[in-house]
Amino acid sequence: MWGTAATYRPAARCPGVGDIRRGRSAGPGALLAALGLVLVTTLCGCSGSSGPWPYRTEPLQFGVTTPGGPRAADELDGIERLAGERPALVLSYADFSTPPPLADLDAVAARGATPVLTWEPWDWSAPAGGRVTLRDIAAGDHDAYVRGWADALRHWGRPVHLRFAHEQNGDWYPWAVGVGGTTAADHVAAWRHLHQVFEEAGAGNVEFVWNPNVRYPGSTPLSDTWPGARYVDRVAVDGYNWGSSPGGSGWQEPDELFDGTLDELRELAPGTPITVAEVGCAEAGGDKAAWIRELVAHLDRQSDVTAFVWFEHDKEADWRFSSSPAATEAMRGALAGRWGMRR
Description:
Blueprint: H1 17-21, H2 28-44, E1 61-65, H3 73-83, E2 89-94, H4 102-110, E3 114-119, H5 134-139, H6 143-156, E4 160-164, H7 184-200, E5 206-210, E6 234-241, H8 254-268, E7 274-281, H9 288-300, E8 305-311, H10 325-336
Parallel strand pairs: 1-2, 1-8, 2-3, 3-4, 4-5, 5-6, 6-7, 7-8
Helix pairs in contact: 6-7, 9-10
């Protein structure tokens, strides 16, 4: 999220269609799933960039990120108790000096969840983030390090969602367009090069997640940094309802916050699963419990949105769904009510 220091900060898999669209090898199961999706599209009329896409055959997935990260078992156990559901995705953060975080991945897998790794191209320990630039990444200056990650994640073997250089359309990270001389072309070139290194390493279990912030007046147009469908497995978006908290721009309902950006993602990447990779709501300025209920219902109505990850941190504002009994109960009830399914 913007204005956030480096800290630990999850998604679902569209069955087969993305692999087929990008020319990847797909087994008989994936092909049958794709044919089934075509049939569903035909029967329910789910088509067009503004309408729902027939991806999910289960409720919208719930994910979380907590201050302690994937190995903070007490935190994650507490989230499960409060939400009434085990998170399907656990999101964490790494910089460009972090070794492949295999212990974190093991901890997430042990919980039966999918890890979402946010890979930030800077050095948390260095002043102003050090000198890790997108231009240097694109030029191959960090290839030995990148290959180490690719090889380690390939050997790990399970699905990993990798979101590199997120929120690049804002102005709060050194890899964002316009910050420190970074250009949109730098983002595209670095993204494509990183993808190529992982592809050459055979790390097919790694899904690349392209993840801007929700658009706002003055943000970089999403199309400027779009690397192309060949290089993206999932698209994602981050968005926060700041309400009347300091630095906020007023209370925004979920549709106001997300829908314009979601439509733009659909135009850029038709047929690609969408994750809301960071979301939170302040207490000040409105009814947080009602906002949580509406968020889950609103996202669940859009079947190309496969997952959302709640930012369970008390930072610039108290974003946590556990910030009050009313907000906690709202999340628990909203999750229990998706598609009428019960645990």
